[in-house]
Amino acid sequence: MTHVPGQPGAVHSPRGVDLRFGSNAVRLSSRQWIAVALIVLVTFALAPSVWQRAEPLPAGADERIPYDLSNDYWLFGRYAAQAGERGDTLLVGDSVIWGEYVTKHETLSHYLNAQPSAARFANLGADGTHPVALAGLIEYYGGDIARRSVVLHCNLLWTASKKHDLQTEKEFRFNHPQLVPQFVPRIPCYGEPYSRRLSIAIEREIPFFAWANHVRLAYFGKGDLPAWTMEHPYGDPLAALRPNMDRPEGSPAHEPISWTARGIEKQSLAWVDLDTSLQWRYFRRTVELLRARGNRVFVVVGPFNEHMLEEKSRETYGDRRRAVEAWLEGQGIPHFAPALLPSELYADASHPLAGGYAQLAQQLLANEAFVRFLGGAAGR
Amino acid sequence: MLFHTWTFLVFFAIVYPVYRVSKGTRFELWWLLAASYVFYGWWNPLYLLIIVYGTLADYFIVVGMDKVGHKKWWLAASVVSNIGLLAFFKYAGFITVNLNLVMAGMGLSYAIPSPGVLLPVGISFFTFQSMSYIIDCYRGDVQRERSLLRYAVYVSLFTQLVAGPIERASNLLQQLRHDRTITREDITDGLSLFVVGFFKKVALADYLSLYVDKVYTAPGEHQAPALLLATFAFGWQIYFDFAGYTDMARGIARTMGFRLMLNFNNPYLADGLGDFWSRWHISLSSWFKDYVYIPLGGNRHGEFSTYRNMALTMILSGIWHGANWTFLIWGVLHAGGRCLTRGLEQTPFYRDRVPRFAKQLFVFTFVMFTWIFFRAANVGDAWLIISRIFTGGLSDPMFPVVALGLVMVLWVYQFMYESKLRWMLELTPVRVGMVVAAIVYMAVFTAPGAQSFIYFQF
């Protein structure tokens, strides 16, 4: 192959080899590439904020992230920012805070708001956010709640077995893999290939990708536009894309019946030692992260459904709960472990039913440390 | 490692600056070899044993050819070595299954155990690339490469290692022998090729695969319109998938100063089967032409020999694609079609009176029909699809209008590109607008999670 004099880029091909540029490629010059880069960068930078203006969030006191958008971390960030701007006390945790078996008008935040108190509470629970994921959620998407008052829920269910604690060698799909550490520390049951982990690690650093994920999840279901058109072959994607987060919420995500009516039997759980627990380590990390960001933190431990536990398992749970309280005490973090609720007010091992949340709210508002916390004392 | 992933981006972000700094020094080839082996070993480090074996064997065979003489014997040794590799990794399972079927038919109770080996990614590509070097050396068309390191880079260069283009020593090895100047145009052209390839793969091929997979995995559950549309969709899917890969490969190579050969040239605008094969997977077609068709005699020994050679070449091309009867039938169909259209092209009526568009439509329809065998899981499924297309009911195919629209736009684009309206596509706002739209569409509307390329299985 030789270069043709006077014609940059033009070449003579060796015999039988066609070296032409391409049959139908869109060939851009360097100036045109600069124009493309500028337009794309401006689009990437502005699209999330422009979209945010076009898509107001519902402002009601009991609003929570829609169940089907639990993986929409950009939306979580917006809910968090909106509640933070209002000066709400933020309830942060997994589906116990979110209200797995109740409507949005039967959650802990609802009953707390219903009590005569100066504070207003926002439900920032997200379904399936075990402590390792919750740490990632706060770290990458919770920046806007810095310096706010946070009530953090500690659900010891996530240390109830090696599997809950993500410590089994056997791989399985757990909730929110996009929020967990991708490389260090190693999570033995996390089986994503390294290519995918690298993608996750890069994309969660760039807000545009979180917004794009929001657009796909909120308007095109669980897949993306191509997958949506497979389900709606004659649908108009532009019509589906009209910004709107006002979604009527019907019945609870799961049937609101007690654990006994559900047919669950008493269980003996293989609690993980807190010293070796990954979930507990990341719960502590979340607390430390929040405090480092200037948040006032109050921790609610449980109430776990001890009615469901065999005697020995219940004793171990008690030991674990006391160890958690001791650590919180040692760190000077105000906390409260509510009394066990009546058996019929639990839907499973850790989720209360509506009546349970009402009682929990009463217990909290009667707790001296909590009242002091709401009054602005302690927590930093 | 797939081109359209962050992993590759990070890999390239490390490889490229070091390559630029080392270019022209003794370290350059070492760096390229290390990068290529990391790229290939990313799938499975054990695959490296195969590529290292193939490289060493072919390098020393040519050394023997040059120094010891008896060229034919060395060539035979190389063919046995390379075809042996392919036979073991690619065809052993297929041969075993069919031998067992024959033995069972003869009433023998013995069954040969299945070899159970994994098909290394891209083995057919780098094996053929290596063979082309040996045959060219045998013929005296290229000089023996004295540096084992340079030869190893020629065989394994990551830009086109796993799915081509199947390069020739006269092109790529020659480029490796000389220092390359990388111009600003190389960078912008490389980027242009890469982005277009990325779009073809992510926005088009992967999209169409959703419909194709749904229909082809359960053809018995679908009726004529869905089967027909899925077949057409697969025709476009495989084109976008493979041409997309090639564009990305050529684009990456271009930014490094390498010029890889053109592999696709608007194949669905072909007006004859011969024309189709000069536009589709050009590096493979020309390989078969140069190393099979012409050595068989080409068109030099009369009509019958010409048709026989053409048919044999097409059938071998079918077998190259995979160890399945469906690929063999696909090759046989193309052999028949190639002979038929060559015959037609020799009649004045077809040549001069039939409009080009009609010829294009005929070739397009024929090629789409043959894709049924290429895509179907087995011959039974292929027959089922064909019979249902012609006899099945007429239920709603539920084919996404958006996908149809995208394919139509691309088709119109190709027609415009080959017409007098091409100037419209070359206006700056049109070009910039198209690339911006493609990037934004992919970033917003397609989910992350890269799908592999169809041709990696070959």
- The count of strands of chain A amounts to 7
Structural class of the helices, strands and pairings of chain B?
mainly alpha
- Total helices of chain B: the number is 19
Number of individual domains of chain A = 1
Please supply descriptive tags for the structure shown above.
heterodimer, A: alpha/beta, Rossmann fold, 7 strands, globular, B: 458 residues, mainly alpha, 2 domains
Report a brief summary of the structure.
Chain A is α/β, with parallel strands linked by helices and 380 residues long. Chain A has helices spanning 30-54, 73-86, 95-98, 108-114, 131-141, 194-203, 207-220, 225-231, 237-240, 278-292, 311-331, 354-366, 368-374; strands at 2-3, 11-12, 89-93, 121-125, 149-154, 296-301, 335-336.
Give a written overview of the molecule.
The complex is a heterodimer of chains A (380) and B (458). Helices cover 40% and strands 7% of the residues of chain A. With 380 residues, chain A is of the alpha/beta class. Chain A has one domain (63-374): SGNH hydrolase (Rossmann fold). In chain A, helix 11 (311-331) links the parallel strand 6 (296-301) and strand 7 (335-336). Mean pLDDT of chain A is 89; it is low at 1-12. Chain B has two domains: 6-179, no CATH class; 185-445, no CATH class. Chains A and B meet through helix 1, helix 6, helix 7 and helix 8 of A and helix 1, helix 7, helix 8, helix 11 and helix 17 of B.
